[in-house]
Amino acid sequence: MSRSTTARALRGVLGPRHAGHTMTAEHLGALSLPVGDDGVVIGDDAEGRPQIVGFHRSTPYEVLLIGGLWTAQVLALRAAGTGARVAVETGRPQEWTRLAQAAGAGLECITLHDVGRVPPMGATVGSPVVVVRDCGMRPPRGRVVSSPWQSVLTLLPYLSPVAPRLLRDSTMVGIQRVSPQEAGQIGRILGLTKGESDALPTLADGVTLWCSGRERHWVLTSGTDAETGLMGVARRMD
Q1: Model confidence pLDDT, tens digit, residues 66-109
Q2: DSSP letter at 82?
Q3: Is 111 exposed, middle or buried (0-12, 13-18, 19+ CB in 10 A)?
Q4: How far is it, in rounded angstroms, from Cα 228 to Cα 52?
C-alpha cells in the first residue's frame, strides 16, 4: 500500500467536496451563535427565563457567593449533574456528607476535603472540575486555584475582612440578603446603583443578585422536588 493510500485510509472515507460558504460583509450582522446556552441552571429571572452559568471554561473562572449554604449546595449538585467532578473544601463536612452520598448514584462525583487538603484534580476539557470552598468567614488562600477547566466557587456567609479582595478578584459575584451596612460596602466595591444596594437587605430566601462586570441579574433559585427532598427549601440562614 502506498503512502498516499495509507494516509487516506487513516482519514476515513472522503465525503463530497463543496465550495466554501461565503457571505457579504453587510450580511455579517445577521450571523449569530448560541452563547451561554449550556452549563448550570442557577435559577430564573423576573420573567421566568432560566439563567445559566457555564462553569466549564478554558480559562480560570472565579465565583464568589455571599449567601447561604443551601444555594451553594444546589449549585454544586447541579454542576455534578453536568458531568463535572466537584471537590468541596470545607470545615463542616457534616453539612455536606448527605449531599455527597446522594449525588452520582454511588459514584464519587462530589468529594469532601478538609480545608487546605484538596489534592490536584487534573482537570481537562473531558473531565472538568468545580472546587467549592466552604471555609468560613476567612477562607485561607487555596492551594488549588482556578485554572483551565477548573472553576472555583467560594462561599462567604457574610462580609468579612477578606471579602473586598474576593469581590474585586472574582469573575462573577452572587449576593444574597445582607445587612444595610454590608450592602453599602458591597455596592461601593461593585459599583451597584443605589436601588440595587438598597434592595439587598430585603431579598427573599433563594434570591441572588449575580454580577459579572457591568451585568446584573436578579435570579430566584428554587429547588426541584429531588433537591428539596434532599436539602429542604431555599433558605438564607444555615
Answers
A1: 999 999 999 999 999 999 999 999 999 999 999 999 987 667 89
A2: T
A3: middle
A4: 20
